[in-house]
Amino acid sequence: MSLDDRLREEFRRAAASAPAYLTPGTRELVVRRAAAVRRQRRVVLAVAASAVLVAAGLSVGLAVNPVGSPLLAGGPAPSSTRPSLSETPVATSSFTSPVYGYTVSYPTGWVVAGARTVWTHGKNSQADPGVSDIFQSPGKARVEIAVQNVPAGWSAARWESDFLSNPAPAQMAACYPRPQQWAAVTIAGHPGGLLGRVSWCGFTEGVVVIGQRAYVIKGVVDPNTLTADTFDMGVLNIMFASLRVRVASGTP
User: Fold this and answer.
1) 108 and 176 co-located in one domain
2) Position 80 in a domain
């Protein structure tokens, strides 16, 4: 078995224990992307080291040992130096969700497909078809919004912990950190958390609990493949700031 084959198998085992709401297809994409990142890292290191040696007047054969990559060792994933997916749109339109009752602004020219069923704790997944309102850009990027009632007697902290109840493996920890590690963000005027936003994750997700409802706003660069691009925070900032919600508890 080649080194790349062994790496692929290791990432496949890691992805098998990823958060439950990841579909099998997404898990396989993570495996392929992680392996590609490892291969790219070896090539970049080899070329850079060779250039230094040539500049010094040396000519040697160079073999780079990839062991110690942060993705394999469980260290922090490299921060993306790529720009956001697109420039922040200025013109916006408004949408009120028939299923969840919130109102939000979104870029004009995007197409909205409303949710057909509510996201119910213990019954279905945020990733199930028809559960999220989908805001589709003219390209591949889109935003998914789903709302779930917090179970009676639960605190916001308990819901957030349950939301990622399956700990992410070390190789994916940067994409799915525990709630205590989420970046601070303001959504609908309330304190929330931000996760993802690492280039190879392929998504950026804002989470906030308001009253007895949890709101998840997820920007996806491309739902069919993983990419080195990060989602445009300008789009998410528009939606975070414009979100208007119903505070009363009960069925969305």
Assistant:
1) yes
2) no
Give the number of domains in the chain: 2
Structural domain harbouring 22: 3-73
Q: What is the pTM of this model?
A: 0.66
Query: Highest mean pLDDT range out of 14-23, 63-72, 197-206?
Result: 197-206
Instruction: Provide the pLDDT for residue 172.
Output: 73
Across 19-23, 74-78, 145-149, which has the greatest mean pLDDT?
145-149
Backbone φ, ψ for residue 170 (5° rounding): -55, -35
How many CB atoms within 10 Å of residue 6?
Answer: 11
Residues 32, 110, single domain; the answer is: no
Helix (H, G, I), strand (E, B) or coil at 216: strand
Closest C-alpha to 187, from 158, 216, 166: 216
Do 216 and 169 belong to one domain?
yes
